[in-house]
Amino acid sequence: MPVTLRVVGAEPLARALARSPELVAAESLRAMTTSLLLVEGDARRNVRHDTRRLMNSITHRIRGRGTRLVGEVGPSVRYGLYVERGRPAGKKPPPRAALRGWARRHGIPESALFVVARAIGRKGIPPRPFLVPAFTKHADRIVRLFAQAGQRVVVTLGGAE
User: Fold this and answer.
1) Whole-angstrom distance between the N-terminal and C-terminal Cα of the chain?
2) What are the angstrom distances between the C-alpha of 50 and each of 46, 96, 104, 105, 109?
3) pTM
4) Residues 28-37: pLDDT tens digits?
5) Which of 44, 45, 73, 148 has its CA 20 to 30 A from that of 59?
């Protein structure tokens, strides 16, 4: 005896599932971009600055595609790491050339650069974090952004939109 099976709504479901990878990718990118901008903005506001060079170098980038996205926020200047994490005591002094601009802006004579560099090498520099606090402040909101992205995908695929 032949059996006939009729599935109501199969064609719209098949179409929705066919476009689900693009939808998931778009929503993931949207959540990632918003998350990175939150962290970047807070890091820029909270970083200590002398010339604003470090602040202006903080930016974000996204690598990968689809659901394999990696977002990064950070400065492009090398000394940003030392501001964020500090510099341990007992290390080699920084090059005097790296201190020249700072010394000039603060009225410290060129002849004192050796002493300043030696003191930094001996005593280190305390950390002044700006990236980790920015991420920590927004961590819960970032989780919510990705959860909302997932909800939008489900709603769209379910046809309730």
Assistant:
1) 41
2) 13, 18, 12, 9, 18
3) 0.81
4) 999 999 999 9
5) 148
